[in-house]
Amino acid sequence: MARRKKFSGGKKKQGFRKKDNPGERLRKPLLNLGRLDYFKYDLNEIVEGSDMNEDLRPSFMASVTAKASQRSISDAKDYISELEGREELSEETAQRIKRLLDRYTKVR
User: Fold this and answer.
1) pTM (2 decimals)?
2) Which candidate, 16, 4, 96, places its Cα nearest to that of 51?
């Protein structure tokens, strides 16, 4: 006759220990998507008041929003600095947009 294994009641409970979170290292500042509509409204006000070419405005706003929400805030700021270097955007407008990005930043 074969011996039956005694049921131990499942896994043994171990003391509480904090598990390593691999996503914790990947956190970076991105655009706060909960306030996306407010951000777009404020960005539109800044761009409409600037001397930027009217044909470039919609694509510029879409690019800044996409870079800030998907890549990182620093990528969006680099893009703004690049346009400022090409003189498509004034220094004052670039600084206002960068401050706006800082205001709507969330670490995710």
Assistant:
1) 0.76
2) 96
Three-state SS annotation for the chain: CCCCCCCCCCCCCCCCCCCCCHHHHHCCEEECHHHHHHHHHHHHHHHHCCCCCCCCHHHHHHHHHHHHHHHCHHHHHHHHHHHHHCCCCCHHHHHHHHHHHHHCEEEC
Exposure string over 76-103, b if 16+ CB within 10 A, otherwise e: bbebbeebbeeeebeeebbebbbebbee
Residue 51 has a pLDDT of: 93
- Hey, which residues does 106 pair with through a beta bridge? 30
pLDDT tens for 7-33 read 666 666 566 666 666 666 678 999 999
Domain borders along the chain are 39-107
